């Protein structure tokens, strides 16, 4: 093991609403968890709807350059409200560049009688997300001491050729991961299965639109969006953020649940460990996740959305204490 210290530059992007508050707690936890050859530095950047209202720009070049220069990006949430008018542990992999979202800005509308969007599935995009899902499943099994692992492909292959192709590429990719079970479900049935028995699942992989819908539903099975971390991971960069939005109705009140963002920070550490082959920063992520689990056993550490009365700061304090 190298004795040199690993330095990681993190772009700290709070965004709008409760974003800066929950990111601040995740930063405090990372600062408390560092050590043993791992050091984090943080540089703040601005992004979001409030910035746009102030400057006319929601994603300035300085922020883009900061993110490109950083080892990882820790992000809160962006967007503002419109004017008035059993133990569950599973991972959802949402393909985030194709699917129905590929039509964003490119659909067509004919008069007032017809509108069309196109769903795009490619072999490259599907194989990439499926492979990541299987690799993650294998890693989870290794950490759990070889427990049974399973990847579930969710689609609508019984109706649409695009989803049948998604399933086909998934099955072809699965051949490289012989020790992992595969499972299949149609999206309409899966919404019921996840509500009825979420503990049956390990890793789930879906097309972009279906993943968008099921990830929010899945968050409800683990305590709500305030408990659900996420990462947008590409070939070079990773952006980590809570699944929730900006919650402007509670912004500034100090009552937002920071756990999703803190867990996103843990996910970020594990990604950094994989990217840089640095088990020490991976261990930081493991410590943070374990500390969240320990802290949540104490009612005083829970915010209002999960049945407690803790402030955002007190919840972060509880995780740091558990570290």
What report would you give on this structure?
The protein is of the alpha/beta class. It has 2 domains: 1-85 and 224-323, Isopropylmalate Dehydrogenase (3-Layer(aba) Sandwich); 89-221, Isopropylmalate Dehydrogenase. It has helices at 19-33, 49-55, 61-69, 123-143, 161-174, 187-196, 208-220, 259-276, 279-295, 312-322, and strands at 6-15, 38-45, 72-77, 91-94, 108-110, 114-116, 150-155, 181-186, 203-206, 229-233, 238-242. The strands form 3 sheets. Strands 2-1-3-11-10 form a 5-stranded mixed sheet, with helices on both faces. Strands 4-9-7-8 form a 4-stranded parallel sheet, with helices on both faces. It has a two-stranded antiparallel ribbon with strand order 5-6. Helix 1 packs across helix 8 and helix 8 packs antiparallel against helix 9. The protein is globular. The two termini are 23 Å apart.
Would you summarize the structure shown here?
This protein is α/β, with parallel strands linked by helices and 323 residues long.
User: What is the ordering of alpha helices and beta strands?
Assistant: EHEHHEEEEHEHEHEHEEHHH
Helical segment count: 10
Using the coordinates shown, work out and report the CATH topology of the largest domain.
Isopropylmalate Dehydrogenase
Number of extended strands: 11
Give the name of the CATH architecture of the largest domain: 3-Layer(aba) Sandwich
Rg, Cα atoms, Å:
20 Å
Low-confidence stretches: none
Estimated helix fraction:
40-55%
CATH class of the largest domain: Alpha Beta
Mean pLDDT over all positions: 92
Strand order of the largest sheet: 2-1-3-11-10
Measured between the Cα atoms of the first and last residue, the distance is 23 Å
* Domain count: 2
Protein structure class: alpha/beta
Measured by DSSP, the beta-strand proportion falls in: 15-25%
Oligomer: single chain
